[in-house]
Each structure stands twice: as C-alpha cells, then as structure tokens.
Design a protein that fits this description.
Blueprint (H helix, E strand, L loop, with lengths): L16 E7 L15 E6 L2 E6 L3 E6 L3 H15 L1 E4 L9 E5 L8 E6 L2 E6 L2 E7 L19 E4 L4 H16 L5 E11 L7 H10 L4 E5 L2 E5 L2 E6 L2 E12 L4 H13 L1 H18 L3 E5 L5 E4 L3 E12 L5 H8 L7 E2 L1 H11 L10 E6 L4 E5 L3 E5 L2 E10 L5 H19 L3
Parallel strand pairs: 1-5
Antiparallel strand pairs: 1-9, 2-3, 2-12, 3-8, 4-7, 6-7, 6-20, 8-9, 10-11, 11-19, 11-23, 12-13, 13-22, 14-15, 14-21, 15-18, 16-18, 17-18, 20-21, 22-23
C-alpha cells in the first residue's frame, strides 16, 4: 500500500501471518533466487537476507520519519500471527528500510516483503508473510544494461572543486571543523535497469561490503552504521580514504601513509567521536579503540574503527540508527553547522544517499548501514553518489580524485562484462 509521503500509511487491514521454516538450498547463492520485480537484499560474503513482494509498506518523510517507522513496525509486529521454527536474528517478521539523509527533501520507506530467504553460517530459512510458500529455485539471469551512458550530475568536476574550496575557506574561518560534501553522476540506459545485474556484480566484487537494495536504492556499503544483536551493539566507522593502485607493494606503502596522515587521522577522529558520543547514552559499557586499522577494499583503502557496546535500554536497532544519524562520517563536525553548510553549498538533493539502509526483526535486532557506494534507480536512469570528508587541509583536486574512486564500484557494476 502507498500513501502520500507527508503522512505514514496505516497498518495492514488484517494481521500478518508470518511463518519461518528451515530450508535446504545447499550452496545456491541467495541473489540467484530474486525475481526482477520488487526485490530486496542485504548480503555480505554470501550471508544475509533477500526477499520479494510487498506484504505491507510505509512511506514517511520529515523529522519524524524514524519515529513514524518505529511506531508502525511495533504496531504491525504486535498484531502479527508469528510461527518461527528457526529463532535466529532475521527470522520471523522482518522489515527492510531506506531513509532520507535530511529532514527535507526526500521520502523514507519501510517495507515488509511477502517472501524472505535468509542465511547465516550453515543455516538457511524461508519466511512467508500472508502468502503460500513458493518453490525456491534460481531465476533467469539478469541482462546487462544496454546503451549505458554516463554524464555529469548537478555539478561538473570544476564546479565541485570550487565548492570544496569554499568549504575549506569556511573551515579555516572557524565556522566548523569538518564537512562531508557529495556529488552525483547520471547513468542513462536504453531500457529500464534490471537492478539484479549490478547487485550480483557488487556482491561478487565487494564481498567485505554489505550489498543492498531497497525500493530502488542499491549499492555495496563498507560502513555499518549500527548492528544490534542480542544486547550487543557494533558500529563500523570509516573516514580517511586513499585510492589503490593495483600494485600490492605500492598499496602497502600507501596504507602506511594513510595510517600516518594527519589530515585523514583528524577526519577519522571526528567520525569516531561522533559515533561514541551518540551510542554512549544507550550502552552500559563501550569499547572504542585508540587507533584505527586500514580496511582494504578492491578500489580504495579506508581508516576504520569498530566501536562496540552493551545496550542497557530497549532502543531498537532503528532507534540506535536514528541517534547516530548523521554521523561526522557523512555530515561533519559540529553536525548542525555541517548539515547547514551542506544544504547551502552542495547544490543537489541527497535524497536517501548517506542515510540509513538495512533491516530489523521483531525483537528490534537488525543491521543498518550507511547508503554509500550507492545509486538510485529513477525514471530517467540511475543516479550515482560519492562523498568526501573536507577538513582544513583538504585539497580540492585530491578530493575530486577521491570522489571519482568512490564512483568506481557502482559504475563498474553497471557496465557489461
């Protein structure tokens, strides 16, 4: 069901009937099960959740988008008739969500699929919501996009470097410490995109990332905003980036340079501090490492820190995601000043780019990533996004090169073999 974005949609007319049972799918990749219509996915290293169909759906927007979603989900789950024979996180009722970066503009979506297939370790399960159990078998392989053409989005490279220079000036004047600036790239095709094509390629090429698709937003994010599982909470913070060369020896030297870079360490410290400060009120104990590690991805390397804690209140994973968003890794420091500057000079609507994306089950456990290395399917094609953290020592040309590197995963995934 769909209602105007200005108001949450009501709950389903009848209670949802949810059944979860174990299934034996051997080594069949979960993405191979997805039909073209209405697929959702959240996968890493072959494990996670995929689904299709719509049993219920919420659209909301504005500053209450998270609380709207939490209320709707809790009411829907409370009325559901649930039979769960597996008992893992991600079994029973599961919703998938994607949320706008800012209060305005942008719509946020929470969807309950009719069918969900999950995998964790050697366990695979099937959840149905008010439908009969389907026959699980591979679907026909998706076709590559035809007539793929890329063009500048809201700003070309020169214009975006001017925006970066203005941000550096504002930081130097003491207006703020850090701001994350994004840009977009437009891809057009002769026919509507079959999103399963880039999903399969992203899952194969970026196994260490979380490959996702919810309501037209897809990508492979390296950044876990928050995971809540049985009382434990984890957030992976990425800030500070260097592009890989493809030469292993050279890349090791670059990793060492990144680990010593005062500019990147400063940017990373802001991001870690913002996450720790947001989680601290919800946790009885926390572990914040003193120094980051270098996360190696196929196209770039990041400074990374895993912040861990023990949750002492009843906050769901989505409520924790709300408390963390926007972190300094996607907004800046201080957050109010940074988000105001983004709205003033970035020159484009982010919509759901850099907002929380992920899933949640009936217990409130779930995983919410940051929608990075991502793109949005539109009526006119595909809109790709990339962003960079700007601090006082940032160089506009270097930031442009970094943004181009961050386009690579989705850009390559769209192209034919």
């Amino acid at each position: 069901m769909t209602t105007p974005a200005s108001a949450p949609s009501p709950g389903p007319a009848a209670p949802l009937v949810v059944r979860t049972v174990p299934v034996d799918l051997a080594d069949l990749p979960l993405l191979d099960l997805l039909p073209r219509e209405q697929p959702v996915s959240w996968l890493r290293r072959g494990e996670g959740l995929v689904g299709w169909g719509v049993a219920a759906r919420l659209e909301t927007s504005g500053p209450t988008r998270f609380s709207d979603a939490v209320k709707w989900w809790s009411e829907t789950v409370a009325r559901a008739d649930v039979e769960d024979h597996v008992g893992e996180p991600g079994t029973g009722p599961v919703c998938f969500g994607t949320f706008a970066f800012a209060d305005e503009p942008g719509d946020s979506v929470l969807v309950i699929p009719q069918v969900v297939v999950g995998r964790r370790g050697d366990r695979t399960w099937l959840t149905t919501v008010s439908v009969d159990a389907p026959t699980l078998a591979p679907t026909p392989a998706p076709a590559a996009p035809v007539g793929l053409v890329f063009s500048d989005g809201a700003r070309n490279g020169e214009e975006w470097m001017s925006v970066v220079a203005e941000a550096v000036r504002r930081i130097g004047a003491g207006d703020l410490e850090k701001v994350v600036l994004a840009r977009d790239l437009i891809a057009t095709t002769d026919e509507p995109l079959d999103v399963r094509w880039p999903l399969r390629r992203l899952a194969s090429q970026y196994e260490m990332c979380w490959t996702f698709h919810v309501d037209g937003l897809f990508g492979a994010t390296p950044e876990m905003l928050v995971r809540r599982e049985r009382g434990l909470v984890t957030s992976r913070v990425l800030a500070g980036t260097i592009r890989r060369t493809g030469d292993d020896e050279r890349d090791l030297a670059l990793a060492a340079t990144l680990a010593r870079s005062s500019k990147d360490l400063e940017e990373h410290e802001y991001a870690v501090r913002s996450v720790a400060d947001a989680l601290e009120p919800h946790c009885s104990s926390m572990n914040v490492p003193e120094a980051p590690f270098v996360l190696h991805l196929p196209n770039v390397m990041h400074l990374a820190t895993d912040v861990n804690g023990v949750v002492h209140d009843v906050a769901t994973s989505l409520q924790l995601a709300e408390s963390l968003h926007p972190s300094a890794a996607v907004g800046g420091t201080p957050t109010p000043e940074a988000t105001r500057l983004i709205a003033e000079i970035e020159g484009m609507p982010r919509d759901r780019y850099a907002g929380p994306v992920g899933w949640m089950d009936a217990s409130g456990d779930g995983e919410w990533g940051i929608a990075l290395r991502s793109a949005m399917v539109t009526d006119r094609g595909v809109r790709l996004f990339a962003g960079c953290g700007i601090v006082a020592s940032s160089d506009p040309e270097a930031e442009l090169a970094e943004s181009q590197a961050k386009f690579v995963p989705v850009r390559d995934a769209l192209e034919a073999d």
